[in-house]
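Sequence in, structure out. Go.
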Amino acid sequence: MLTGEALYDLIPQRPPIVMVDALWSVGTDNAVTGLTIAADNIFVENGCLREAGLIEHIAQSAAAFSGYDAFSKGLPPRLGYIGEIKQMRIAGLPCVGSRLTTRLQVVAQAGMVTLMSAKVECEAPNTEKTVVAECQIKIFMTE
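Output:
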């Protein structure tokens, strides 16, 4: 759907902190994003993406989802802030060259607050996809 710099219209982040490089699908209450982990990623340490990088990837995936919704309505994307992360489970740290696929699902929405579930799968070269992270993330949007 959207890749690379085309995503800059949807998220407030800019290099070197961009943590989503693909928005593959968007529904009314769900989205699928992606990221290929590069060696120069600021969250990579000892060849693997650190926990903070996984969390930032999930947050930016939510931002891309929200930004696409605004963009499709002819509106500018709103700024969002992480309000809470619950039930965070990190099963592994993906290494450089791995491809993350993140599935977001809206659980609840009230006013400017959205609660989403996120599941991050990793596909490393020559391996099967495995779930590396899951959580619920609450995002507060600005006007």
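Check: Residues 2-141 form a domain with the Thiol Ester Dehydrase; Chain A fold (CATH 3.10.129.10). The mean pLDDT is 94.
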